[in-house]
Amino acid sequence: SAYIEFRNVKKIYKMGEVEIEALAGVDFSIDKGEFVVIAGASGAGKSTILNILGGMDSLTSGNIFVDGKEISGYTSRQLTTYRRYDIGFVFQFYNLVQNLTVRENVELATQICKEPLDIDQTIEAVGLRERSRNFPAQLSGGEQQRVAIARALAKNPKLLLCDEPTGALDYNTGKQVLKLLQDTCRKQKVTVIVITHNLALAPMGDKVIHVKNGRIESIEINENPMPVE
Ligand code: ADP
Ligand code: ADP
């Protein structure tokens, strides 16, 4: 059976009298080890999907299963454990701690998880061994995002959720970051989900879920996903 399953997931934000239907009944499934792109215009509902899947936001109705467990039934305490142990997050603006070095940023993430990977090997794997003692402000944007990826991976997560990971990078740097994510997915058997408004990224996904106005517009399966050059 599928590793991740969304069944008729709805999300309504209530702001006083006003209701905003961010997700109007979303169904999809994702297999273990898939590299998935969730694509759609701004406001389509991509972040809402990612935030709910990552246990950072609640859903209004529907069911979500991850690895055989119904996370949509979790208490907030169970969600905290799930976020901490099972999920790695990568954000558009890196969210690194500025007064910690690269190594310290990665180390910090490993302190709250059960079975962390080796810190230095993880930094090496993202190509930043020489940068271990630098501070984030001394690195380029692409390098900072690689630190953020190392930090997320060092937790040894089952699932890596990436919110516009290339959104703040130029085209070529963005492609390198995506290649790192694609390689990681292949080599470490981590399931990787990337959300983006940039359709140029879509052919890289094993699966591309197109979202529009809170609904699934289409789901593309790429038998031969485009490798990032
Ligand atoms: P995307 O990530 O595709 O840009 P979002 O998931 O952020 O889209 O937003 C989907 C819809 O939900 C939008 O109409 C957005 O304005 C609304 N929305 C998102 N977050 C909130 C919130 N915290 N409160 C109210 N409305 C929200
Ligand atoms: P980009 O090409 O992504 O814009 P930059 O031009 O900012 O990157 O940086 C190019 C290289 O110089 C990168 O390897 C970056 O790590 C390094 N670098 C930039 N600023 C500093 C700094 N203050 N201290 C050390 N290295 C730096």
Automatic annotation (TrEMBL):
What is a GO molecular function of this protein? transmembrane transporter activity
Among Pfam families, the record links this protein to: ABC_tran
InterPro entries attached to this UniProt entry: AAA+_ATPase, ABC_transporter-like_ATP-bd, ABC_transporter-like_CS, MacB-like_ATP-bd, P-loop_NTPase
Q: Name one GO cellular component term.
A: membrane protein complex
**What region holds the ABC transporter domain?**
4-229
KW Membrane (keyword) present: no
The reply to whether Transport figures as a keyword in the UniProt entry is yes
Q: Which UniProt keywords apply?
A: ATP-binding, Nucleotide-binding, Transport
Family, as annotated: Belongs to the ABC transporter superfamily.
* Annotated protein name in UniProt: ABC transporter ATP-binding protein
Q: Which source organism?
A: Amedibacterium intestinale
